[in-house]
């Protein structure tokens, strides 16, 4: 019964039943203790986890490999890494699952100091005669993107290991491993290599297509992402899910692809996905950036989803983006009137907690959103943390270094500023000029800073001079 609750994600009911089992003096066996360890790991209840651990010691089942492996995973998910390592070290006998549990705990920690020891763990695992399996590799690959602490070299070594040990054939159950490879190469800026992996996959489900689409979007190739999104449906007959829809919507925003954005919106209505918060928030953001504030407000007002802080912020920012200050203030006051006035520090902490608990590895767009929220609410500590993860994920993106450098400069931490500037110089990184674009009658016009390449640049600058003069006249 407890296992049934676990499989249906009814974690609270599962643990309540375990407690009831104790009140009836029914002794737990190894299977029960392993199952309940998974339950408390999912709800991140460390106190309950310690209770299960004590029960395992008391009944003697702690010597059971399956129970100990579950305890390692539980402590890892609860962020208690010393206890996790202690359980592992005290095991009389270990299997591949034991090592995988330890690797999973370290890889999901988000703590750079802990992750520094991860490759040593992997090395010791092999010295003990254990072979890395698909689970081990899929835990390590997300850490191997970029040229930072891990670097793409580790990713290539893992790819070679996969091929040498025939862990990946491109067909069937190992599709998850293929997705991890695509994601790793995309994060390293080698999206073409990721595409080679994708093209060689014999079986491609919606998750594989979404990984490749997201890879193109992360690397700024929005055209190819949109082409692939259409091929997914036309060539393979695969319908997009909520994740793929949320992934492709930023591409519509970036090139003002309002028509495709509307088609995606229509699809969500037909498939009755309008109750999904993330998807509705992405639609609001897309419509706002495409200049269709009426449509954005319709999604905001008429959607059957429960509005969260991001929903309100997206709509308010949409009005602010287009200079509609009165509408933005009016909506902000409405938000306050309805009691939506959370403590902003608590909200940012919850945002970080949400990122840690995401079932997929958070990408640059997620950490970038946390940066923007931290700037909005003045949380410099959270802002610095998010910037550091961005540098870790995108070590060749100069914007990340410049932004963090500006943050240090604002707090007069000049030694940190000098360190970042030196790092940029050693890597040969330079900040690319800012670029804006607008779509008029189906044609996209791009503008760089101090750009005079546009055929009507003279008229444009004359109009700008007139606007600046009027603004100055009005004080």
TrEMBL record:
Gene3D superfamilies cross-referenced by the UniProt entry: Tetratricopeptide repeat domain
Signal peptide start and end residues: none
Residue spans crossing the bilayer: none
An individual GO BP term: RNA modification
Pfam families: E_motif, PPR, PPR_2
Molecular function as annotated in GO: RNA binding
Keywords: Repeat
Top-level taxon in the UniProt lineage: Eukaryota
Statement: the UniProt record of this protein carries the keyword Repeat: yes
Matching InterPro entries: E_motif, PPR_At4g14850-like_plant, PPR_rpt, TPR-like_helical_dom_sf
Full protein name: Major facilitator superfamily protein
Organism of provenance: Hibiscus syriacus
């Amino acid at each position: 019964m407890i296992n049934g609750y676990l499989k249906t994600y009814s974690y609270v009911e599962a643990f309540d039943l375990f407690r009831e089992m104790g009140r009836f003096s029914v002794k737990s066996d190894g299977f029960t203790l392993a199952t309940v360890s998974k339950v408390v790991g999912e709800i991140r209840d460390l106190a309950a986890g310690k209770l299960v651990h004590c029960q395992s010691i008391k009944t003697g089942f702690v010597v059971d490999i399956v129970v100990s492996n579950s305890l390692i995973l539980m402590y890892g998910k609860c962020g208690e890494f010393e206890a996790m390592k202690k359980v592992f070290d005290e095991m009389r006998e270990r299997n591949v699952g034991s090592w995988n549990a330890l690797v999973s705990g370290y890889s999901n920690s988000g703590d750079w100091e802990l992750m520094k020891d991860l490759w040593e763990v992997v090395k010791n695992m092999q010295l003990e005669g254990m072979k890395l399996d698909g689970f081990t590799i899929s835990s390590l690959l997300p850490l191997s993107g970029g040229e930072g602490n891990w670097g793409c070299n580790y990713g290539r070594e893992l790819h070679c290991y996969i091929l040498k040990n025939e862990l990946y054939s491109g067909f069937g159950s190992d599709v998850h491993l293929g997705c991890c490879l695509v994601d790793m190469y995309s994060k390293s800026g080698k999206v073409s290599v990721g595409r080679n992996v994708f093209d060689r996959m014999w079986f491609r489900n919606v998750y594989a297509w979404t990984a490749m689409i997201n890879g193109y979007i992360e690397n700024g190739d929005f055209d190819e992402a949109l082409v692939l999104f259409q091929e997914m449906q036309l060539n393979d007959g695969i319908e997009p899910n909520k994740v793929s829809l949320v992934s492709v919507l930023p591409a519509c925003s970036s090139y003002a692809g309002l028509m495709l954005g509307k088609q995606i919106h229509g699809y969500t209505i037909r498939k009755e996905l309008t109750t999904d918060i993330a998807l509705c928030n992405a639609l609001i953001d897309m419509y706002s950036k495409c200049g269709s504030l009426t449509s954005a407000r319709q999604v905001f007002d008429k959607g059957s989803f429960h509005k969260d802080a991001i929903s309100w912020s997206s709509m308010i920012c949409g009005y602010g983006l287009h200079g509609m200050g009165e509408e933005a203030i009016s909506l902000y006051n409405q938000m306050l009137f309805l009691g939506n006035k959370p403590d902003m520090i608590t909200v940012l902490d919850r945002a970080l907690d949400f990122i840690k608990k995401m079932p997929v590895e958070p990408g640059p767009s997620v950490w970038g959103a946390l940066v923007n929220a931290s700037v909005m609410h003045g949380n410099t500590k959270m802002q610095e943390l998010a910037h550091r993860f961005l540098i870790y994920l995108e070590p060749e993106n100069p914007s990340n270094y410049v932004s963090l450098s500006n943050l240090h400069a604002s707090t007069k931490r000049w030694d940190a500023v000098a360190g970042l500037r030196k790092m940029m110089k050693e890597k040969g990184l330079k900040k690319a000029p800012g670029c804006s674009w607008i779509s008029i009658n189906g044609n996209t016009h791009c503008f760089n800073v101090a750009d005079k390449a546009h055929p009507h640049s003279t008229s444009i600058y004359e109009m700008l001079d007139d606007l600046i003069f009027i603004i100055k006249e009005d004080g």
